Structure formats: structure tokens, C-alpha cells
Amino acid sequence: MAYELWSQDVFSKGELSPFMYARATVNEYGNGLKIAQNVLTYPTGAAGKRFGTLYQATLNAALTDFENLYFQTFQYVNECVYQLVFRPLAIDIYLEGILVATVTTTLDGVSVYNLSSTVLERAFRVAGQGFKPYDLTRSPNAALTTSTINSQYILNITTASFTQGIVYPVRFVNTGSLPVTVPQIKEGVTYFIMTRSNASFSLYSTAYDAKFNINPYTFSLAAVGANNLFVQNTWTWAHSFFKNLPVYDFNGATTSYDAITFTPSATTGAAVTITLSAPYAPLTSAVYVGGAFFGAWWIGRITAVADTSHFTVAVQTPFDGTGAIQGSLCFLAEPAWSDARGWPIICSSYQNRALFANTDSLPNGFWASVINDYTDFGDLTTDDDDAIAWFPSSNDVNYIRFIVPYRSITVHTNTGIYSSPLSDVVAITPSNFTLQLQDSTPADVLQPQAIDNQILVLSGNDAHQMLWDGINNAYTSDIVSIINEQTIRDPLDETPYADLRRAGSRYIFVINASGSMAIFQTLISQNVSGFTPAVMEQSYGYAKFRQVASSADGRAWFASERQIAANQAPIAITGFTAATPTVNSYLTAVASNFSTTVPTAITFTTTGSLPASTPTLAVQTYYWAIGKDADHFYVYLDQADALADVNAVAFTSAGVNSNVVSWTLSTIFTLEELTQDTFLDCAVYYKGAPASTITTGALFNAQDVKMVGDGFGFDAIGVNNQVLFETHGIVTQVSEAYIGFPINLIMQPMPLTCANGPSAKNTTLTKPKHIRSVRFMFNNTIGGTINGVPIALEPFDMAHIGEPPFSARGIFEIMPMKGWDDFNNPLYTIEHSDPFDIQLLGVFYSVDI
């Protein structure tokens, strides 16, 4: 019997697939976890609790299906980041989670869910199936005039024009003198206000500062003369304007004009008439205006069509004469985009060019605008800054699904991945542009995302990296999901996220159809890559991730789907049935219609007396009902008892003038921001005067919640839109608090394996082993359990009564000293649902083999 020490101090491969459990001789086995729910791995190798989410807003009630939602961020130049929520017939525009505007559209739910978007300086452009692309733009509101100082931090305006509690970008114009402030405001600079009433505001440098009242400007003089304040919040939704459209000859292959001659009336000019020697049937004004006529070296843009034998062009490259030109030497094209031929459904941008792709008529069409002009796609000339058109093809029908600009333009089709030139370090031009096949694995549902010198491509449930090889100027493909294949299932959305607070932390969040999320961590230089699953949970009803969007400044937001409990009309209790040895006691309430399988939260009200029972009922307390039938129901103290049909409340009377109130579930969508300030989901933040009861809205009614108040941890149940802070039954006041749903972390190390002999292939995985002791090293940890035993990292005498718990680093040791556990049994399960962090640095074994 050999005595050995064995350790695992790297968890960067995340949660391994069950198919990896026997591969004990590969490095991934020793660098992964069997279970890693709600775990975020660190580039340094540690595994900790994932981030929390901060509740921002409840989305419009008209949004009832996540398949009618498109969620994205809009980085508005260097000023701020808007969160855009597209829903059928409208766009809701949020700034710092506050609704600042709603714009009406004509897009239905199917169009919304399948949108493609890109940011073009001050415009947010969208494209999709069945409509001409749109641009969402912002402009100033009508001028407001500042008046008097309300207080040191509040300035008044002359006309009541605000809604209180809104963050707006603003600009000042000096028409007399500017208000005197510290720091001093200037013209031509965007500031942000938080409206304090309908006619007053406080001023800040950033939208974030405005929301949280950080560093407000101090007003000392209201100024002289009319001082105009322009709120920047007028939003326009309009079809994208195009100076010139690309052209294409849709009829050349089916209706030949080779035998026809074309005679120009002049060699130059803006209105040169071209006469055909015979009528050409497709030539109509509705089809060809905006198209092009090429005759040998001559080029003209079609501006009008008189009839099937005459059209007018604006000459761009002069004709060398007015003689007839044989049709076989000509090119007659209509606009590539139109209502009849279809508009692009994919958009992007690259090197100061707007990009479009895929119309109904040209599904493999790719177009890039003129440099620095996102409205001009005229591709009649080939100067370096002119527009580009290309049509990638392979040995199959080819259509473009996505455009991903990175080190090159990567175009993702149904047959594979194409890239623009890789060997040139200069800008793309009409003369050097190509699209060459890089890999035959297509992205099928989600737009690939670029991060950490790679493009992550999802093909079905498989993920692979397109790695940039700078030496060979090429992309190479590498499968990355094979060891974590169980974490991605029917993906619906994804976004890259760079955590700027943790060195080297680069992630991609993948949202699954089930509402779970796969978190991919990558740091190629350190051979770090792996997936961990994340889930949202709540005690009553369900919670799901639905869509995600991020910004370049290290922030991310989630559109989440949640169920909340709302009280229904009271129903009178008219009778009871006492318990017997074989039948549970129940109450009678006609047409109560409680589910006979799923517990429903209930409360009781009375103007007389509540039903007499064991245990005794109370008002303002949640119980759980299971229907016996439409008119009768059983009552339980908690959900677990209701589901198991145990410990039903025993009634001895129906009470007097008593009612049962059902708290049924309804579905809402919430906007939540990723946060590392608290380890709770959908957390409501409170900061203000000391209080024990905090209003949270309907989010937490009938829900078990965790809370942090002034550094202490609390448990509560939301009642009537409020939560109560209390410790061992004693009401406690807090001045800063987070209230939210717990994040339930679960970690299990892989089954223990030790090398046995000189070869790494000789493993003891399936050989019974006797573990003398195991030591877990933690960092920045408060709370948690291992196999149900609370984790204690500091001696008891270091816990100071009355002071908040503090994060600790240390060793927690377990000494089983019994049995020879079978390898397939999970030896150790780390669980953590406290509203604090936990970080596992390593697991160290002393084992007899």
C-alpha cells in the first residue's frame, strides 16, 4: 500500500463532459471539474462564483415571447452606451437601464427576432428579411432655458419639460453666459443630467455618474441672459438613405440583348439618351432607374427610362463617340437592391465602409460602401476608395449568413467561412478584394464573435475557433467544445465580454434555448479555454437567460425571462374537511381552481377569524396550496411539503369571514446588468436612510431571497412588494443593501486519479483508494459547505460578534479516514448560495493506493 500526495490546482478547462470521466491520462482531466454550475474560472487557474446581475428595468408588458425580442447595445460615439430592446412595432431605448424613449416601427415579431445590426458612428443600422434597411439616429430636442439655482447641486429650467428620475445627455449653448459650475461646463461638450423634478436637474460628466449621483457638478451662478440647454433625446427611425446602389444584370442570362445595338446621343453629360436598335422588353422605368450601362470602356448611371427602346444616363466615364455599340460588348444592369429584387438582410462595417450581404435574388452577394460614406454603394468605378461587390461561391448553393469584421472580413456562408485578403496590410480596395475559403465548417444560427485573437464559431452545438496565425497570415480552425460538449444545447444568442477588472479575463457568453448560459473563457497565450454552465434560479416559478449584449468598456446586460407572483381576487372560504388517518385535511373555496400538481403560493385574509388549524395560520404569511379539485385545496407550510404531499395543515374550522388569496405566476422580461459588486441575480440596490423594510416591487413576492445589508447577510421572503431585514427575529436597519435571488454554486472535482508507474498511461482511476485527508485552499471566501459541512477558514475567536463577515484565505481540511470509495461516487461537493464570493484555489489529497 503506497502513500501519495496528489493535487489539482488548475480548473481552467471548466466543467468536463461525462465522456471525459474516463480520460484520466489527458491534461484536461486534471484541469477540469466534474460539476461547475455558476462557476467562473480564472486565467490563474482558480474557480470562483460567477458574477451577479443588477436589476435595471422590467421590459414593456407587450413583450410576451422571447422570440419577438432583439436586444443589442448602441455605443453612441464616445458618450454613452444605450440598451436597445426591439419588440414588435416598437424600439425601447434605455440609458443606464432607464427608459428614455420609445420609437414606433412596422417590424413584426419574426422580423425583430432575426435582425442584423451594426453601429455606424451616430447611427444604429439594422437589416432583415423583407424590408429595406433602417437607421436609428439621435438628434437634439427643442431648446430649454436655464433659470435659477435650486440648491448647490440642482439647477432649474423655465418650463416644466422633464419626467423625474430620467438620465439624459445634454449640451449647453452660450447665448449670454454659461452657468458657473465646478468643474466649469463648456460649449460643445456632452454632459448628463438626472432630472430631479419636471423643471430641475443635477449635472454629471457620465451617464453612470448621473444614475448613481456620483460627483455632481456644483452650481454657483445661474448665468446671465438666455442660456439654452439641449436635451439630446429625439430619435428617428427611417429607411437608410443611399446615394447610389450597386448594380447587377438579372436579365442577361435569360433575356439576351447581345443582338441589339446601343447608340448614345452624346459622349458626355448628365442626360445622355441611349437608343436601342430594337425594343428590350425588361427595360422599364420601375426596374432600371438607378442601374447602369457599360459600353466597352464607357460607363453611365441610368437616370430615366422613356420606353423599351430609350433610356437616359448620367455619364461617369465618357464615351469615345456616338456610334452604335454592339450589345454583346455592353452591360445593362438594374439596381441590385429593390423591393422587387430584395434588400440585404445582413449588415456590418469594416475599415470605414458599411457592409451588406444576402438579398432574396443574390443570397451570396456581398457589398462594401465607399470609404467614409455609408450611403454610397455605387460600384461602377474601381478607384481605391470606391464601393466593392463580390459573390463568394463554392461547389454548392451559397448564401451568406453572417459578416464578422476582425483582422480581416470573415464572411460566413452555409458552406463555410470566407475571408478577405490576409496577406495585405493595406486597406481593402476594389482591385485587391477577394473572398477566399478558410474553413468548411459553417456558422448556422448565431453570428460568430471575435475575441482574444480568434473568432468563435458555433455550428449546431459545436464550437470551434478560427485562430489568427500572424506568421502565415491565415486562419486555422480548432475545435474547443469537445471536452465541454454538454454545456451548449440549441444556442440562441452570444456575445463577447472582456472583464476589465480581472487581468486576462476574456469570455464569450452563449445563451441556450433552455435559458441556461455557457460561459467560455479564453486566454490563448496561457492555453486557457473551457466552458462552464450558468443558470438563473428562483424558489417560485422559473428564471431564464434569453439574450445578452456587451460593450467595449467591460459592461454587459441580459434580457431575462422571469415569473413573478401577483395576488388575485380573494375567494371566500366556505368550509373545511378534517383529517383522517388516510385523508389530509382541506379547505373549501368555490371556484378556487388551484393546480392539483404544482404548488401555488397563497395568503389568507379575514375580517373575523382565520380557519383554526395545526399549525396556526397567520396573515401576511405565504402558504402553499395543492388543489383537490376545482373547489377544494390542501394547505402546506412550504413548497417541498406540497410537492411531496406531507405535513399538510390540519383544520378544525373554516374560520369566520375568511378568504384565500392566490398568488399566481405571470411572465415578465427584465433588463439586468452584469455586476461584480454583489453575488445575487436580479439584485435590487438600495442606498439611503437607515431602514428595515425596503420596497422592491413585485419581483420577490412569495420568493426566497438573499440579501446583503451593510456587509451582513440576510434571508427573507418578499411580501407585498417589500422585504424585511431582521436577525434572529429582531428587525435590523440597513443603509446600503442588495436584495436578490441566490446564485447556487456547485463544484465537484473529478474522481481522484494518481499516476501509477513510470508512464502517465498507468492511472489508478478505477482502483479503490483510501483518502486519509483532503485539503481545500480557498481565497476571498465567505460561507459555503463541503458535503454539507460549513467551510471555516478562520478560528472561531477571529469572528467578531457584531461585525460583518470578512473574506478569508485559508485551508479547510477534511479527514475521511474510512472506506475505500468507489471512483464513480462524487467524493466532495462544494456548494455555495450565500450572497458572497467563494474562490477555490486547489484541492490537495493524502491518499493510500
SSE map:
Elements: E1 3-8, H1 27-30, E2 33-37, E3 39-41, E4 47-49, E5 52-58, E6 70-76, E7 80-87, E8 90-95, E9 98-104, H2 109-113, E10 116-120, E11 123-127, E12 134-139, E13 144-151, E14 154-157, E15 167-173, E16 180-182, E17 191-197, E18 200-204, H3 207-212, E19 218-221, E20 228-231, E21 234-239, E22 247-248, E23 261-264, E24 272-276, H4 285-288, E25 292-295, E26 298-307, E27 310-317, E28 325-326, E29 330-335, E30 346-350, E31 353-357, E32 366-368, E33 388-390, E34 400-405, E35 409-413, E36 417-419, E37 436-439, E38 449-451, E39 454-459, E40 462-469, E41 474-479, E42 491-499, E43 505-512, E44 517-523, E45 528-534, E46 543-551, E47 555-567, E48 571-572, E49 575-577, E50 586-588, E51 600-609, E52 613-614, E53 623-629, E54 632-636, H5 639-644, E55 650-651, E56 656-675, E57 680-691, E58 693-695, E59 704-709, E60 712-717, E61 722-724, E62 726-727, E63 730-731, E64 734-742, E65 745-749, E66 770-781, E67 785-786, E68 789-790, E69 808-814, E70 830-832, E71 839-848
Antiparallel strand pairs: 1-71, 2-65, 3-4, 4-71, 5-56, 6-7, 7-8, 8-9, 10-11, 11-12, 12-21, 13-14, 13-20, 14-18, 15-17, 15-20, 16-19, 17-18, 22-29, 23-24, 23-28, 24-27, 25-26, 25-29, 26-27, 30-31, 31-32, 32-33, 34-35, 35-36, 36-37, 38-39, 39-40, 40-41, 42-43, 43-44, 44-45, 46-47, 47-56, 48-56, ...
